[in-house]
Amino acid sequence: MSKKISLQQTITRRTLMVGAGQILLGSALIGRMAYLQIWQSEHYKNLAQGNSIKVTPILPDRGIITDCNGVILAQNTKHFRAILDLDSTSDLEATLDTLSHLIELPENFLLDIQNQTQNSHPHFIIIKEKLSWKEVARLEAHAIDLPGIQVTEGSVRFYPHALYIAHVIGYVQSPSAKDLQSSNKIIKIAGMTIGKSGLEKTQNPILQGVPGYHEHEVNARRQILRTLQTTPSKAGGNLGLTLNSKLQGFVHERLGKELSASVVVMDIHQGDILALNSHPSFDPNLFSQGISQQDWQSLLHNPYKPLINKAISGEYPPGSLFKLVVAIAALDRGLISPEHTHHCPGFLEVSNHRFHCVRSSGHGRLNLTTAIAQSCDVYFYKLALQLGIERIAHTARLLGLGTQTGIELSDERAGLIPTKSWKRKRFGKPWFVGETIIASIGQGYVLATPLQMAVMMAQISNGGHTITPSLIAGPGPGPGPGPASPQKIFSPKIFAPILEGTHMAINSKIGTGYRSRILQPDMRMGGKTSTSQVRRISIADRKSGQYRNEKSWKQRDHSIFVGYAPVHKPKYVAAVVVEHGGWGSKTAAPIARDILLTTQQFCNKD
Amino acid sequence: MALNPNNFDWLQKLRQINVFVLILIGIMGAISAIMLYSAAGGDVSPWAQKQLLRFAMGVTIMLLVALTPLHFWLRQAYVLYGVSVVLLVIVEIAGTIGMGAQRWIDLYVFRLQPSELVKLTLVLSLARYYHYASLESARKFIFHLPPLLITIIPAVLVLKQPDLGTALLLFMITGVMIFVSGIRLWKVGLILTSAIACMPLAWMFLRDYQKNRVLTFLNPERDPLGSGYHILQSKIAFGSGGVWGKGLLQGSQSQLKFLPEKHTDFIFAMLSEELGMVGGIILIGFYSLLIFYGYMVSLHCRNIFGKLLAFGLTTILFLYMFINMAMVMGLLPIVGMPLPLISYGGTSMLTLLTGFGLILCVDRHRHLRRGLSAP
């Protein structure tokens, strides 16, 4: 009996020990709960969030680009695209294999997929754009065998007037690996495109818009259960251009026969670009849908460089056009009066070197106006010798040469206005007088883009106001904002004899461009022909007399003409550069005549 | 008058049952139904309704058991044990394959899970065995060998199913009961040491998935989408629930099916996600009250059979609760152990409620000393 009781006592004691142990274990449970639910709570809350929500992007529509009359130059067309949702595929290879039997996949497709899956936002990959109805039907029919493949509506950039606006508008493409490293996070979203040239590139931040997104609730298999929240995308801003697409088209047609040329037409008061062409052109639509390797190679290796916008990137010796700069410099410094005359014997001898005039028999005695009209070289050689290169360079810079004009396009070149210090820096050699002489006729080191030539002539013909060339009018069609703060750079009095010279150059029988004059009295143009040498004329060439246009294309002179109209109340300026086109008066001047005539017909509404 | 059970009629017997415990059990049933309602995304089907029906059935059985005379169980303990072991063997031969493990016999009305039954019969047998023991015999090591033997037989059978959780539970129950029955503490230390020494040997007998579970438990990030997935998702459920929880039906882990087995083994993770740490602690509080009651019954009982029976059954409740909770919180490997009275499933609830019926029965007979051992 007593033993029984003592066993009971033992049991009681041990039960209490077990109870104590259980209290300890229970405390461990509560401690663990506290650890997970208080200390680690934030960490697990983030994990839970990532578990349950899946974000899918809504791509914004890219902004529409219109010309000055509201004609659409760049728009978006809707189409069907096949996309791959990586979250929903379990066996990627099998899916892609099935897919390849149903629709034709682009070359190097599998490699592309592998690259894209390594991207930081690998949720969606675009398999194919612009599916045909047949392909859509086939994909829908086999949807069960294609987990993760979805057909969605996409949009692709479309340029209705592709060929003649290519260089201004540019094109869009899927971002390259280099683009993806940029600070522009938006383009990392699959399906976003990025402007790669022209306005599409420089105005990309405005045009691209802001993507929206759906927040979906998903289950453990990342299948979408319901949409929690939708933030709509914001379409990109529209752009209205100063460009006149009709004129642009006309210029394109007019340049048709030339191998390589560029044209700039602008309003001389506003700086509005009315037409800006580079020839030959290309079809920017090729890029929107992914250009084929073959097309890309043929564009890249075309000797006439269709991908380059020569109106802003082509740098040419301005030739005789530069004589206007020398003339303005001389008048501005009070070096000469407009009536000042020089005698032209056909050449100028300086330090035992003979500098020839364009007319080897000589022009005889000329004043400034007739020197411009007849494009006498010797007259300007003499002015240049008096001025020196530094003063010429100063005036040239005031007129906008040697620096970028600031047009809203990338890849604009600055041209070149040489100075003594520039030469020392560049070649480590002193400046020679002879170099001043050839610079005075726009040869040697001097380089200018067609746009710079147009801006220079605009500032001469508008009475000396600075202008900045502009392509963008605003968000819609209309005239451009005009120069922010127009500055008078020279006294208008200086320009009277210059403009008289450019008037005579076209409309007087002695002028170099007489054959290209406009006959309509109220639309007549003034201007300056220019023939810029690509290759130095050797003495042998000069003797043979065959030194102008019988050479191979690459060695022929550039044909340049910069004109304005109407001649008595200038409004428009046109610069035409035909690469290796020969005489300025023969090739570029007639083109400029047609363009300026058409510009006045198209744009003179008031 | 209280000494002779035969003098009581049914009504009087019912009055002897502790009402407080009944209320506690009722609360547990309600919590279970609410959580299963939430697990189904706000629907009484497929779980909550069925569970409530079973619960009602279980409570009825519990009350019936509570009203039985205690000596019946003392007398039939070994017989019942024998029956349950035979049933285990039948499962081995003719059991239905379910979840990759043979655990139940399909009786067409309900599925009998003998591995649950054996927990009760084992405790009954052990209580009976020590009921007739003296302190001297309890001090002898050899005296504790038969209890080990009657544990090893069902444990091996259960392990073959394979159900590692239940097998370990059986050993733990026996171990705790041997400990309580007065074995010398240094012997306990010896057994524990040798058990630890045997662990590498046991490792060899584990199946691959069981080894995986252990490895994954040691390092959950080892395979976050495979074996570690469950425990990681469970920890996310706990952690993201925070102190106050996300609210009933609002747990993203549970409602979006990230949490596996949320209506059965992982129901506590779901409860803690939706009701927070506060909800979890309240539930532990309810369990503590039930366990406290069970041990109080054991402490106040004057006969050793009742003492050990109440103690063993209460310990089962504790082990269930502790192992399940520790497991879903990542403190123990995943072994397949339901949360007592809350998880969806009939057999374990039936076992526990029957067990509670026995505790209530002991409670009614706590003053008996010799009357029990009479025949």
Which tags fit this structure?
heterodimer; A: 606 residues; alpha+beta; 5-stranded antiparallel β-sheet; 39% helix; elongated; B: 375 residues; mainly alpha; 3-stranded antiparallel β-sheet; 3% strand; globular
Name the pair of protein chains with the most residues at their interface, and give those residue counts.
A-B, 40 and 49 residues
Query: What kind of sheet is the major sheet of chain A?
Result: 6 strands, mixed
Structural class of chain B: mainly alpha
Number of helices of chain B: 15
Q: Report how far the terminal alpha carbons of chain A are from each other.
A: 129 Å
User: Helix- and strand-based class of chain A?
Assistant: alpha+beta
Order of H and E elements of chain B: HHHHEEEHHHHHHHHHHH
What is the helix content of chain A? 25-40%
Report how far the terminal alpha carbons of chain B are from each other. 21 Å
The counted number of beta strands of chain A is 20
Q: Rough shape of chain B? A: globular
Topology:
The complex is a heterodimer of chains A (606) and B (375).
Chain A (H helix, E strand, L loop, with lengths): L1 H38 L1 H12 E6 L6 E2 L5 E14 L6 H11 L6 H9 L6 E5 L4 H9 L7 E10 L3 H8 L2 E2 L3 H4 L13 E2 L2 H5 L1 H4 L4 E7 L5 E8 L7 E3 L3 H10 L6 E7 L5 E7 L5 H4 L4 H8 L9 H4 L9 H10 L8 E4 L2 E4 L2 E4 L7 E4 H7 L2 H11 L1 H10 L21 H8 L5 H8 L9 H12 L10 E3 L17 H16 L18 E7 L6 H6 L13 E8 L6 E7 L5 H20 L3
Parallel strand pairs in A: 2-10
Antiparallel strand pairs in A: 1-8, 2-3, 3-4, 3-5, 6-7, 8-9, 10-17, 11-12, 11-20, 13-16, 14-15, 18-19, 19-20
Chain B lengths: L9 H7 L2 H21 L8 H20 L2 H25 L1 E3 L2 E6 L4 E2 L1 H18 L3 H5 L5 H16 L3 H17 L4 H21 L2 H11 L8 H15 L10 H4 L11 H34 L3 H25 L17 H19 L11
Antiparallel strand pairs in B: 1-2, 2-3
